[in-house]
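Appendix C reproduces, verbatim, an entry submitted by the partner laboratory led by Prof. M.T., so that reviewers can inspect both the input and the predicted structure.
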Amino acid sequence: MSNKKTLHKKRTGIPYVKVSQNPITDLPREEFLLAVGKRLKALRNERNQSIRELAASSGLDNSKLAKFEKGQVNFTILTLLQLYNALEITAAEFWDF
C-alpha cells in the first residue's frame, strides 16, 4: 500500500480508493494546469472563437484567459462556470479529455 493510502486509512479509518480513472488528475500541478489550458484552447478553437471573443462572452479579461490557456494561472470554480456558460458546454464535456 502506498504511503498516501496508508496515511489516509490511519487518519480516517477508511481505505483509500482512487475515484478517478483519468490519468490527467495524476499529473504534477504545472502539467495539469497546462493540460487544462490546452483543453480550453481546443474548445475555443473548435468554436472558431478568438481569445477576445471568449473573454467578452465569459466576462473574463483577455490576458487572464490567455494565461489560463498557457497553464500559467489556476482556475477558480466560478471562472470555470463562466467558461462553461460561454462555451455552452457542461462540466463533463469540458473534462472529457
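The chain has one domain: 30-97. Additional entries are available on request from the coordinating office.
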